[in-house]
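Notebook B, p. 112. Complex prediction, attempt 2.
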Amino acid sequence: MQSTLARPPTAEQIWDWLREIPDPEIPVISVVDLGIVRDVRWHGQDGRQELVVTVTPTYSGCPATSVIMLAIENALRDKGVETLRLERRLSPPWTTDWISAAGRQQLRRYGIAPPPETAGTRSPLSRLGRKPATVTCPRCGSANTAQVSQFGSTPCKAQYRCQDCLEPFDYFKCI
Amino acid sequence: MAVPNPLFEYLLRLGDNCLILGHRVSEWCGHGPILEEDLALANVALDLIGQAKLWLTLAGEVEAEGRDADKLAYLRDAGEFRNLLLVEQKNGDFAFTMTRQFLFDTWHYLLLRELRRSTDSRVAEIADKAEKEAAYHLERSGDWVVRLGDGTQESHRRMQRAVNILWPYAGELFEMDEIDDALLRPGVSVDLAALRHPWHEHVGAMLEQATLEQPKSGWAQRGGKRGIHSEHLGFLLAEMQFLQRAYPGASW
């Protein structure tokens, strides 16, 4: 739907539009709930306003990042935003702490165990002090689960299996 | 001899390590011992290639001669690559690949952890992002070293063989030269010699847990950082760069 806007939409309005854009690989969660949209802001002075949307990648090599950038651009242009710039920001690096409560709910309902609320700090050098995170089966709710592999079908997931209902499932790994 | 642009050289080293190891690991795609490991190897490769892109993009900006990450990756010959000899070694078997990964990951994690405090904010930002990924890689490769080392007789034998063959390539990780020195003074780079102790501490503890013997020899193979490579790199580049060499400027 192409339309020309009488006056520029507010940042809140833009955030609402962005909430409708699904992550291309995990379409149950929006790019906003995933926490990768870091900033929405109008820049410039009267007359010449430019919308700047700042996005951070989940993983350095995640191939979805460029698809997400394109989806954001298409969506906002469809809404009639004409002057738009997308910026990629590396720092501070994305953390699963930024996934919203709603996003966690959506992941669980989709069959992906969400990461814990806070990533905390841990060191890969201290193996002894390393306690595996308690991962709850998104299907039956059992905490009796085991890691199958540290990586899954996308860079952001690991593979688990429920020892009670025996279902394999994805775990959104915590970073 | 003073190097005209030490930061450019330094960024090539960081980027080339990731690029060459990323390519090596990607060679496993479709050949992993089990599906889960195939996926995991491809994911590690993806992280490393993503990091390589960040470093090489910055290198191109610092050089300011119009080369982007793709040009630097696809249009340099072996002598212009600045990666460590360790990362260009062939995959061998799964034990060999995981041992190479573990020796690299331990160093890479320690290096990135320090680089996060670089006085060059562009370097610090990339390190901050990459460190999280390197930490995850290290957990995984360390787990495999223990599992295979302290596994069956056959897996133990293969792991010990891999450790023995790869050990001489570890020395180069901690060598400082004039480029490292030039960047260490203003706080841009890291004192590699200072990483030696924590590296040995972790690697030693893990090898012990894996019931593997740490080789006694301290003799080191060196040269990669200065562009003197083993014969393996040329073959790797022939595959990696084929498309851009055969069809210059091709894009899609």
